[in-house]
Amino acid sequence: MNDENAALIKRFYDAFGRRDADTMERCYHPEVTFGDPVFQDLEGRDKVMGMWRMLLGRSADITVTARDITAQEHEGTAHWTAHYTFSGTGRAVVNEVDALFRFEDGLIVRHHDEFDFRRWSKMAMGKPVGFFFGWTPMFRASVRGRATQSLQEFMKTR
């Protein structure tokens, strides 16, 4: 166990839970990359933090808790839970996420989140849409496209 890297992950999620994007940003390497089932491949601290700032701005009621944090010299993991209201539909979401990290220069250089997209879409979009379409590649591509467009628009206003 690498205590410094474990503390870095904990600091990131503690800041996330406080909605403290500036502290979250200081945990990331300038060349960080991020991926999850919606935002598949973001490169650079500006884009990655743009995503987090956009999501925090749209989720006034978000709460975040992290557990099962482990870290070695170059890699780490955590499980985190987000409770929030999805801005697109006003529906409550409880998202269970497994995170993988890589470290460089004492910072997070790679952050990858995995969650059950179909489960998330049922909560965020509602049962008819999420249940029947959440598993389809076309629906996932549509959600990803809208998310990417939202991030691009958000980044222009910063």
From TrEMBL:
The keyword Repressor does not apply. It comes from the Bacteria. Pfam families: SnoaL_2. Keywords: Isomerase. One of its GO terms (molecular function) is isomerase activity. Residues 9-111 form the SnoaL-like domain. InterPro entries: NTF2-like_dom_sf, SnoaL-like. This is Ketosteroid isomerase-related protein. It comes from Streptosporangium subroseum.
